[in-house]
Design a protein that fits this description.
95 residues; 25% helix
Length: 95
């Protein structure tokens, strides 16, 4: 149908859109624990967005997939915050 606006896509990954996160892929099982791959933007000291990617693996293995995934989200939040803080202090100096 021409001109129809697509329905919004609902995403339940709470980290998406938080702290510069622009993409992520989750995975979990009891033996493997929680795993999370993420992509974020991190502004440098001149305000230019720089790409940052990371992977967190093997969180709370053996404790259940839901617990592992929650641990992976928590660890990733901390890591992303640290990366963004570090990037904010780098880049070419503004004159």
């Amino acid at each position: 149908m021409a001109g129809r606006v697509p329905d919004p896509v609902r995403n339940t990954n709470t980290l998406l859109g938080e702290g510069g996160v622009i993409g992520l892929k989750t995975g979990s099982s009891s033996p493997a624990g929680g795993n999370l791959m993420w992509a974020a933007v991190a502004p440098d000291r001149d305000g230019r967005d720089r790409p940052a990617v990371g992977v967190v693996l093997h969180q709370k293995a053996g404790a259940g997939s839901e617990q592992g995934l929650e641990a992976a989200f928590g660890t990733s939040r901390s890591l992303i915050t640290s990366v963004r803080r570090w990037v904010a202090g780098t880049g070419p100096a503004t004159r």
